[in-house]
UniProtKB/TrEMBL annotation:
Top-level taxon in the UniProt lineage: Bacteria
InterPro entries membership: DUF4254
UniProt protein name: DUF4254 domain-containing protein
Pfam families from the UniProt entry: DUF4254 (PF14063)
Length: 204
């Protein structure tokens, strides 16, 4: 089983486990052993799955404004955790390939492994939910057909993205691509960088 096959399997287990209770307040119960890549991938997708449903909830037109604000704060916090974990995954791969010496003409990829994995995790969620819609008994036949067409595109995207990630890993292993990791430098949650937050602090 190659890397993306493993990741896809882990992501789908996380999604299925979440939907047992289908509650954004459910605590994660990671079934994989400590310090394994599978445990990290499961945690990554769990964050994505919870955030997916927080995004659904906040779009309720009748939501109480105070509740919406709390949800927005929860989504911001989730985004930060997601970014931190993506960067951790990149660090994991950087450690894995630290002994590889890139060739003099090695290329630099526009996207790191972990951010490609992030897209794969979100894609697993799209496939899961689009499949539900394509088979929802209460929906019209037209709706199901439209969703099946979209699902077919998502499944093709899964194949292409998986191939691309596996090729990138091979290129890094062979020294054809130089692995570099950049921090995202998120600013909106930092009281020293977000002007709305630090100006408020100066007014006290």
């Amino acid at each position: 089983m190659n890397f993306t096959e493993t990741a896809w399997k882990v992501f789908n287990k996380s999604i299925e486990d979440y939907h047992v209770s289908d509650d954004v307040n459910t605590l994660i119960n990671n079934p994989f052993e400590k310090d394994t890549l599978e445990r990290i991938l499961y945690a990554k997708n769990w964050i994505d799955t919870v955030q997916w449903h927080l995004e659904d909830i906040i779009r309720d037109e009748n939501i109480d404004p105070a509740e919406a604000l709390q949800l927005k704060r929860a989504i911001d916090a989730s985004n930060q955790k997601r970014t931190d974990l993506v960067e951790f995954i990149d660090s994991w791969f950087l450690k894995k390939y630290e002994s590889v010496i890139p060739k003099p003409d090695a290329k630099i990829n526009t996207e790191t492994i972990a951010w490609a994995v992030d897209r794969l995790s979100i894609l697993a969620l799209k496939v899961y939910h689009m499949s539900l819609e394509a088979n929802r008994d209460s929906a019209s036949e037209e709706h199901r057909a439209n969703c099946q067409a979209k699902l077919d595109v998502l499944l093709a995207q899964h194949e292409d993205l998986s191939t691309s990630i596996n090729q990138l890993l091979t290129d890094i292993e062979n020294g054809d691509v130089k692995m570099k990791v950049y921090k995202q430098m998120k600013m909106y949650n930092d009281e020293s960088l977000n002007p709305v937050l630090y100006q408020k602090g100066q007014q006290k």
